[in-house]
Amino acid sequence: MFNTGLLKFRDINDKYGHLTPIEGKIDVPFEIKRIYYITRVQEGVTRGFHSHRKLHQVLICLNGSVNIRLRNSNDEEVVQLNDPSIGLYIGPLIWREMFDFTEGSVLLVLASEYYDESDYIRNHDFYLEEARKRF
Ligand code: TYD
């Protein structure tokens, strides 16, 4: 889908385990200003239900698996994240919902900007109006 995509990071794998390095502007297409992680999501819970006006993000499932539903005004797609060396890039004006978090799953998010509630679009009808202008 336009403005989204999977990124493959290096997986440095030796007898001591796996290590994945991620550098801003090199491995992800933006400077990383903020990270956050989502853990201990109860069964049956869906999160997200928003898009951002300007924010760029990369989602990485460090443990377990989680499904991400991506939507714009025309398309819908579900991506399953279950590999710590894969990132899902989500650019501006993409609606996202996160669901089916497995027990013990950890979702890491890298973000291009500091937290700013005014960058969120949480109303889906308003989102569709904005997305139709763009896509
Ligand atoms: P939200 O982005 O709505 O979570 P999700 O999309 O995963 O359902 O954020 C949930 C709450 O956490 C909301 O009250 C805003 C707050 N929050 C911060 O204070 N800082 C942050 O960096 C993020 C991502 C959220």
Automatic annotation (TrEMBL):
Gene3D superfamilies: Jelly Rolls (2.60.120.10). It holds the Pfam family FdtA. Residues 4-130 form the Sugar 3,4-ketoisomerase QdtA cupin domain. CDD domains: cupin_QdtA-like (cd20292). InterPro entries: QdtA_cupin_dom, RmlC-like_jellyroll, RmlC_Cupin_sf. This is WxcM-like domain-containing protein. It comes from Clostridium aciditolerans.
